[in-house]
Every structure is written in C-alpha cells, then in structure tokens.
Amino acid sequence: MKKDESHEIVALNSLTATGIEKMILVIRDKQVLLDRDLAMLYGVETRAINQAVKRNLERFPERNCFQLTRDELPDSLKSQIVILNESGNKRGLHVKKMPFALTEQGVAMLSAVLRSKTAIQVSIAIMDAFVSMRHFMMQNGGFVNRLSNVEAKMIAQDERIFAQDKKILEHDQKLDAVFEAMDRGELQSKGLFYNNQVFDAYVFVCGLIRQAKKRIVLVDRYVDEKTLAMMLKREKGVSVTIYTYDKSKVFEVDLSVYNAQYAECPIEILPSYGMHDRFLFIDDTAYHFGASLKDLGANTFFFSKEDFTLDEVLKKSNEIAKEKAQNEKC
After folding, report:
1. Architecture of the structural domain at 187-329
2. Which residues make Cβ contacts (< 8 Å) with residue 152, sequence separation at least 6?
3. Per-domain residue ranges for the chain?
4. How confident is the model over 56-63, as a mean pLDDT?
5. Any idea what DSSP says for residue 291?
6. pTM score of the predicted model
7. Exposure check for the chain: N or C terminus, fewer CB within 10 A?
C-alpha cells in the first residue's frame, strides 16, 4: 500500500469514528444537519430542538437555520412518505411539518440556548465533524483543483466562523462557571459579555448585588430606573450610594418615586465629577465595568475586580466637589 493511500485511510477512519459525518447533508450548497438527527445526538425530542430555535429566532437567521421544501427532502424521508402512501395512510400524503436544517453556525447557537454541559460538548463534536469532513474532501481526489475561487473563499470564511463560534462556546462555558461560582457565594475576578447578552449581564450584576453584606456603592455617570431596580435585589439592611453626573429631571422623578415607596431602604445620590469609568463596590470589593449598568449587554463589555478603594476612585472627584463648594460660597 502506498504511503499516500495509507494516510487517506487513517484520515477517513478518524472522520467516521463519531458517525456524525453520515448525518451531514449538503442542501442549498451548505453542509447541514437535520433537526431529528440533532435531537438524537443531544438526546432530546425533535420538538425540543424546534422549540429552542423558535424561542430564539434572533440567533438563528435563515442562512444558518432553514426549513426544507418537499423537493429538498432526503431520499430516506421521501421513501418513508412512499411507504405511508402505499399503506393507505392519508397522513402520508402531506408532511405536517417539514424538517429544519442547521449549519454548523446554527449548531453553535443551539448549544448556547440549550445551556447544558452536554449540549456544549456535543456541539463541539459536531462542529469538529463539519471541519474534519471539509479537510478530508480538500485533501483527497484533487478536490481543491475543482474548487472555484468563490468556493475556496467560502471555505476559508467557514473556518473563521468556526473559530469564532468555538470561542463563543468557550465563553458560554466560562459564563456557566461564573453563575455556578456565584451560587457558591464566590465573586469572580474578571469576565466578558458579548453584545445582545442583556439578560445574562443583568442576572450577573444582580448576583453581585445579592452578595453585599453591608454596602453597595456605584460610580456611574448615567443611571436610570433599570439601575434603581437592580438595587432591589440587595439584602435587607444593605445601604446603597450612587455617585453620578446624571441630574436630569426624569431621573430625579424616578429617584423620588423609588425612595417614597422604599422609604426603609432609600438610595443616596451624590455628585461625581471628572469620572468616565464605572465602578461597583460590593462591600469593599471594587468592580470595574466597561459600560454603564443600564446599558450592560447592549454591546460587548469587559468587567474586572480591582484593588482600588472607594477613596482612591473618588479622590479627584471629591477635590473638584470641594472646589465647587468653595466657589459657591465666595
């Protein structure tokens, strides 16, 4: 046996080891998996896959998830329809729900909405199978020579998207670790949230607020009623002070209504000057945020735990406040 032939057999064996590649179909010039095959891999019912997609449509654009037409049905499904027709079952004449097909990018998003360790591991294995199949086809039979320039660019783009999706999966794993640590009462030192993860970011910050035992201090130029609502998550007896530059009439009304209703735990608002960054102090632990609390998750942002004290953060602001007070007296 020639060396090249031996290499091809080894590559093929590694590819067929998982059996996933047998399920991968090419429909609309895309490599896809059908919803029923995905359900089998994840160990759930097909309707669970479809419900997860329908509840998160913004994560599944048509280029990554689409419903097949009758002409696009695989032969295996067409044969099932023929058998039903011959048996006299009228339901076989019409498919009640055509199957959905997901690309590897759709699979990546599916693991994010299913949110389980099994889903993440299965999705990584599926995407690895997609990539392995492309590599195998490119390395054998002069496949590369038969590709047009457009097709070659599409494969390169798929590789970049795969790498990005894998990073998203890794981020989801880290995010799960963050929430698990919060359940154990641990505070994380740093993390990253991507755009459109508004609810995840909101839940995370509320989790931090719940950890406070004595006080919460927020330094943020812009706050609104959403920020005030977050503070309702704190334990009884925990004080809240917000240093902000926001002096709008709308916020003043929101604050007065809030303090009137929650008179037993009012929020104190103090001015901040020359402040750009946002800090959240949970007792004596300082967190630095790359966005205002009211906007968390709208865009990608980073947070980190810092060694700064509140006095250090407000040092310059307090100096400006004193100067303003002296000038007003004069």
Report:
1. 2-Layer Sandwich (3.30)
2. 144
3. 3-178, 187-329
4. 88
5. S
6. 0.44
7. C
